[in-house]
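ok so I'm stuck.
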Amino acid sequence: MDLPKLENYELEGKRVIVRGDLDIPEGDFTRLEKSEKTYEYLLSQKAKIIVIGHRGRPEDKTDDNLSLAPIAKNLQSVLGAYVKFINDTTGNIAQTEVNSLNPGEILMLENLRFDKGEEGNDDLFAERLASYGDFYVNECFSSSHRNHASFVGIPKLLPHAAGIRFAREIEKLSKVLQNPKRPIVLVLGGLKEGKLKYLDSFTKIADKVLVGGRLPEFLQNIDHKLIVANLTADKEDMTVRSIELFEAEIAKAGTVVVSGPLGKFEDEGHRLGTERVFKAIIASDAYKVAGGGDTEAAISMFGLEEKFDWISVGGGAMLEFLASGTLPGIEALID
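replied:
not stuck anymore, here's the structure
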């Protein structure tokens, strides 16, 4: 995939709009740390940095609980550089602050989803945001499956590139789709029934799809490539026999992708399925990829972070990319 890469551009003194990965709780630094190289590159270039993004689902209304103000402080802590925050996006305050930016300074605007123009992919909203910058960088893979103004509207109007982490996401996930090591085993878990909409695509890509978590309750048609877990009586874990079936398939795999825990892993009494399956994955010789917040939380609980070849910042975005081979946010950078 021929993505334009940030490192190939000279941006000294340029106003650079960074679509940041900011949908995080106050005090959570993980995604910001994973984006750190992009910000450091822009600081080294003495760019004027304008950070935009969203947090939560405010439904087009201002919600102080979903302000990006605390996230600006998070980013400041990660970078060790002052991040100025303003509670405006496309108003006169934002324009004034953008105009006064000096090289090497960072400004963060308020939650884009406070304005209906973001999720509505409104042209005027995108144009107003684009007017602040000379260049656009997408460093938010986790939401790039959304057809929103900050992902697909702004790059139509400005020179643009993929952020450093964003480009790595595409590189690592593409290994599942392009000349992968076979067999490919996809492990689907968690609570979100919406994952099952990808099953048709996944059964074309994968040699086996292992379905656990609460998802077996929602399955109706069983493809021959599916192995569906039997759940314990309380539905909070998988049976030992199902764990053993999953372990046997994983042991044969050349590539494993996992999305979602296999039970209520937060509860010690319902941790067995997730722990044994995840440990089977890291014990295999397969190329190992994981994605999603709950998946990452489980991996962290078991101390397995360094054992995976890649842990994606995006759960839904990772699944969408694997199912379709692209995302709206990627297409906007390539066009």
